[in-house]
Amino acid sequence: MELFYFMVFGALGAVVAALELSKNSKDRINTSPAFNSFKNNYLVVYSLMMAGDWLQGPYVYYLYSTYGFGKGEIGQLFIAGFGSSMLFGTIVGSLADKQGRRRACVTYCITYILSCITKHSPQYKILMIGRVLGGIATSLLFSAFESWLVAEHNKRGFEQQWLSLTFSKAIFLGNGLVAILSGLFGNLLVDSLSLGPVAPFDAAACFLAIGMAIILSSWTENFGDSSENKDLLTQFRGAAVAIASDEKIAVLGAIQSLFEGSMYTFVFLWTPALSPNDEEIPHGFIFATFMLASMLGSSLASRLMARSSPRVESYMQIVFVISSASLLLPIITNVFVGASFKGERRKHLICWLSSASWLLYF
């Protein structure tokens, strides 16, 4: 592995460690042993669920390319996953409330395990089914688990302020530490142990199975408030009225969608951008570097948002400007200085700019 990747990873890791260690504990809240046991159980499960998701990220495009698919076909597979997540995401919350949040979490595990199994097939139709299943699983991941947590927390009579402790720890572990470790573990499986690009998906299925076993053995079922259950058409009508009555809601939705759209485009293209001629690159290690940058951005954001100035609106304008510049620079260098920035230098530049983009994605 190149020294360059170690340098980037080490530099980001040192900065993140320094920021995290500098946090003080003056606002630490005293909790009960029962709550700590409940919180730790949830964090273990959530970390396993996120590991099952993050392990797959660095190798999806690479796996499809090893099966001989071109960028167009791979793009169709990605769109299928995003599309199924979009469609299913509109109803998953309502279904989980009616059928049970615990059952929805188990469904996530089963659906994602099946999606991982399909990765063993080089058949386009089988892979397409896997992407659809993966999109459904993603919708469940980002809805059912948090809904179960909130309902169970309230049902057990814990203090409301303690809920923020569980969420903050879940974000730090699931979207930070676990994401970084998943990238490194995937790199170990594929590059160091030479187990092939399917190995991370098999490992993900194992983590998901362990998490499902814990859910089945220790979680109780909870449901949404039956008095508030409404059919989908009524819910959509209510959402449309809310958007139409306040333009800020529509603008916020557009801003979020545009930013997420740019990042999903990046997720699809970073692998071919760093290996345009199918060069060997440490996908998992690079992914771990991206996640370190994301964790750094989250840590910086929490400090900036705690200050009275700049205002959130001004702060987000700066974020969008820097994000746009980070994503635009590879295009400029490719067009105007492509002749002088080729090979390793070009890959290094893209990797630096990609890390800058993820720093802003918190």
Automatic annotation (TrEMBL):
One of its GO terms (biological process) is monoatomic ion transport. Its main location: membrane. Mediates high-affinity intracellular uptake of the rare oligo-element molybdenum. It holds the Pfam family MFS_5. It is found in: Cell membrane. This is Molybdate-anion transporter. Keywords: Cell membrane, Ion transport, Membrane, Transmembrane, Transmembrane helix, Transport. The chain crosses the membrane at residues 6-22, 43-62, 74-96, 128-150, 170-189, 201-219, 285-306, 318-341. GO terms for molecular function: molybdate ion transmembrane transporter activity. GO terms for cellular component: plasma membrane. It is a multi-pass membrane protein. SUPFAM superfamilies: MFS general substrate transporter.
